[in-house]
């Protein structure tokens, strides 16, 4: 292993820091997705209820609003943990590049407070304001949720495509915060994340109501509760696949080692096949289904397109191939499976304006919720692990950014315990909310609508 430089973190502490950050991000990003997608779905359901007079929409909106409040509160806790971890675990990053990254994080703070303020008004004033005026108080929540995602992901995009600063003997000078935030990776990476948020939210909510329908609850409330979020997620899915395709070509130009790891491509060349499945062993992709010329065509629209392989990257600068490759493969497989599920519903609905009558559709819809979350997590693994060993692409290594203090594994254990408690508490509260009797304001009805 060699002699560690003075003040450098041990490999064990580096792995502990990376694991802790990965767990925190992986946990928080699920709640962040619901923070982006759920306000829009809730406000839309309420608007439909007001416009059509259909009380099922109002009941759905009222239930979703309560769940949204719970998820926002828990997300605020996990987001606070992440903000501390940025400074505690990665002081090398923040000390060197904090002034470059400061703008998107500051703007995200403003968006968070706007979201919190108006979410409080939206929840508290449900039966205290006229319906249309109350509906308007939900709009800032929708905008702020999307804005928060944009600002945070733009900071991550900068880590993949650092811009907006100069280096003078290792010192950061000439900081241009707006250029840093609107770096080349920002447009497509932020769109990809926001679309993913609507997929996770839509399929996640639909899964709950599909489970209720499997238990025999086939009333209008459950049908709308499934159809509304499922339709949004299904409509978003083909656009998400398109954006993912654009991002792959972006990587070919801007981050070729990541694309090479995604495909397990060892040798640079043209007429490169697309590998489906397989494992990267002993410097080559094995057990994969190969589609001739497909990767070259996807990257440059012609078989003669040259695609860079890992042979052009120093061994010390190569990302770990198998975690990146397998994560990407799983993400793509789930994306196309969800696309087919949406097409199934679209065909049946076009023919007879109804859900598919087979229970298989409901079972697959139940599975679509966790599948969308799994696609989200594997997408982030592809993005983050594919950038390694750099925390700031080609500028700062992850090992140079980590806190050199010993014992970082202790923090990992503490954070694991915190997230276990948060998970159990959140599931318990949401389950209690699911089984509670919902009373609509100004109507006086009270019925069981537990999905």
TrEMBL record:
Membrane topology recorded in Swiss-Prot or TrEMBL: Multi-pass membrane protein
Transmembrane segments: 26-47, 68-90, 102-124, 136-159, 191-212, 224-243, 328-349, 361-381, 408-430
Key word Endoplasmic reticulum present: no
Keyword entries, A-Z: Cell membrane, Electron transport, Heme, Iron, Membrane, Metal-binding, Transmembrane, Transmembrane helix, Transport
A UniProt-annotated Pfam family: Cyt_bd_oxida_I
InterPro entries hit by this protein: Cyt-d_ubiquinol_oxidase_su_1 (IPR002585)
Subcellular location as annotated: Cell membrane
Superkingdom of source: Bacteria
Keyword Heme found: yes
Family note: Belongs to the cytochrome ubiquinol oxidase subunit 1 family.
Protein name as it appears in the record: Cytochrome ubiquinol oxidase subunit I
């Amino acid at each position: 292993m060699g002699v560690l430089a003075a003040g450098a973190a041990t490999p064990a502490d580096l792995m502990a820091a990376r694991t802790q950050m990965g767990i925190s991000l992986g946990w928080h990003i699920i709640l962040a997705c619901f923070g982006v997608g759920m306000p829009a779905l809730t406000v839309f359901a309420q608007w439909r209820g007001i416009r059509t007079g259909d009380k099922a929409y109002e009941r759905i909106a009222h239930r979703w609003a309560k769940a949204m409040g719970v998820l926002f509160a828990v997300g605020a806790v996990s987001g606070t943990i992440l903000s501390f971890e940025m400074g505690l675990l990665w002081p090398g990053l923040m000390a060197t590049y904090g002034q470059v990254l400061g703008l998107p994080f500051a703007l995200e703070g403003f968006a968070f407070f706007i979201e919190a303020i108006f979410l409080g008004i939206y929840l508290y004033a449900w039966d205290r304001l006229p319906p249309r005026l109350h509906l308007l108080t939900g709009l800032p929540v929708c905008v702020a949720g999307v804005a928060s995602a944009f600002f945070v992901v733009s900071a991550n995009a900068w880590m993949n495509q650092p811009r907006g600063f100069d280096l003078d003997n290792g010192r950061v000078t000439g900081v241009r915060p707006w250029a840093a935030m609107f770096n080349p990776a920002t447009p497509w990476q932020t769109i990809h994340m926001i679309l993913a948020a609507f997929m996770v939210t839509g399929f996640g909510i639909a899964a709950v109501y599909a489970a209720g329908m499997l238990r025999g609850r086939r009333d209008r409330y459950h049908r709308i509760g499934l159809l509304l979020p499922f339709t949004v997620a299904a409509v978003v899915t083909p656009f998400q696949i398109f954006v993912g395709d654009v991002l792959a070509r972006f990587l070919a130009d801007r981050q070729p080692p990541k694309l090479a790891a995604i495909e397990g491509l060892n040798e640079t060349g043209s007429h490169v096949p697309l590998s489906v499945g397989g494992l990267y062993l002993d410097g080559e992709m094995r057990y994969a289904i190969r589609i001739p010329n497909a990767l070259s065509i996807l990257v440059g629209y012609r078989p003669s397109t040259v695609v860079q392989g890992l042979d052009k990257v120093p061994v010390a600068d190569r990302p770990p191939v198998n975690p990146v490759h397998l994560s990407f493969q799983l993400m793509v497989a789930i994306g196309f499976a969800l696309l087919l599920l949406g097409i199934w519903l679209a065909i049946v609905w076009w023919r007879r304006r109804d859900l598919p009558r087979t229970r298989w559709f409901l079972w697959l819809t139940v599975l679509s919720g966790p599948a969308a979350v799994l696609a989200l997590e594997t997408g982030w693994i592809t993005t983050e692990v594919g950038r390694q060993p750099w925390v700031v692409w080609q500028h700062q290594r992850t090992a140079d950014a980590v806190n050199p203090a010993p014992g970082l594994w202790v923090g990992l254990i503490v954070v694991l315990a915190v997230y276990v408690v948060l998970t159990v508490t959140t599931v318990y509260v949401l389950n209690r909310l699911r089984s509670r009797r919902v009373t609509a304001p100004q109507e006086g009805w009270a019925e069981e609508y537990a999905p």
